[in-house]
Amino acid sequence: MADLSSAEREFPFKRTQPWNPPPEYREGHETPGLLPVRMWNGTPAWLATRMKDVRQILAGHEFSAQPARPGYPLISASLGSLLVNEEPTLVSMDGADHIRYRRMLAPLFTLNRINRLRPRIEQIVNDLVDQLLAQGPPIDFYEDFTLVIPSLVISELLGVPYEDHAFFQKAARDRMDLSSGPQVPIEAGIRVAGYLTQLIERRTREGVDEDDDLLARLIKDQIIPGKLTVAEAAAMVRLLLIAGHETTANAMAYGMLLLLASPEQMSELRADPGLIPTAVEEILRFTTVGHVNSTRVAVTDVDVDAQHVQPGEGVLAMVAGANRDPSVFTNPDRFDVRRTPNEHVAFAYGIHSCIGQPLARLELNVFFEIVPERIPSLRLSVPLETLTYREDQRAYGPAHMPVTW
Length: 405
Description:
The chain is an alpha+beta fold. The chain is 49% helix and 8% strand.
């Protein structure tokens, strides 16, 4: 087995083409144990890309999600600065702290509660299609369409004014940019924290109705009784607000791009709309837009696929690699809207699996039910090979997607 002293290759790796994860992930599938890699600051870490290893790491109490722990593998200087310095959220907590926060949010994201949003999400998508058809092409499918939908949905769900969406989208990109300087994400976080703190304080003074929105529920059930400080609530809402639109928007755009590039798959979907839920799961698996998430650090001695990991050693549990594991998925690099079973980990795994996944799944299902039917002639207005992708962002997808119809 390898040891961390042999780590030479620098992570994150580059994709050789946009559809698939870096080729080093396939090496991870085929090589016993874990692969030693080196982060931007020279810190060594273990890379896991097999499904069984990724699940073990993400579900095990032997690993911590706290970025401040020594040895935690920080993806970049900007991300490290952000994670270490800002108010923590449940995604970077362990044990009792994580359970406390998750229990506060879980009742607000139950499947039944989220499914009641379907009529409103359908209205949002249909209204936006009406606007685009009236406006006419060309448009940037990402900026002008897919980014708008989850931004509206999450703003209404949380109780944050949508008219401020440009501010949040800019802040989200600054916070998710892996290549910016260390101060950029911190300053973006400070701006968002200040905005949300003022909003929470104002709505607390004005009084809230329990059923108004998620922010009202937090104020009534958690802040007023003293279970949650305003700063903690602002951090929680920041996480939901920013994560709630960038990742889903990328999955929508990337998923539509896959269908446009796979006309036979699009034809199958149009011929049998009952395939849409299966197609959405395949889009989630194939794109895995959260392509560099799920980093951990060992807190005790543990073996992962016979690779001994010591306390303080960082581990990169790459869900994008797990979702292409040939021992789990037949022809893993083939996009197949009929793929079943499809037990992917696009929303991570274990106690830190994405709490908003019912909402993301609903938005994606509604989107792919409506858009291919209402805009059947939708197509790229530039050659596919000229598109660029968000390599330097934590959420992967086409940077711009010019389309016509």
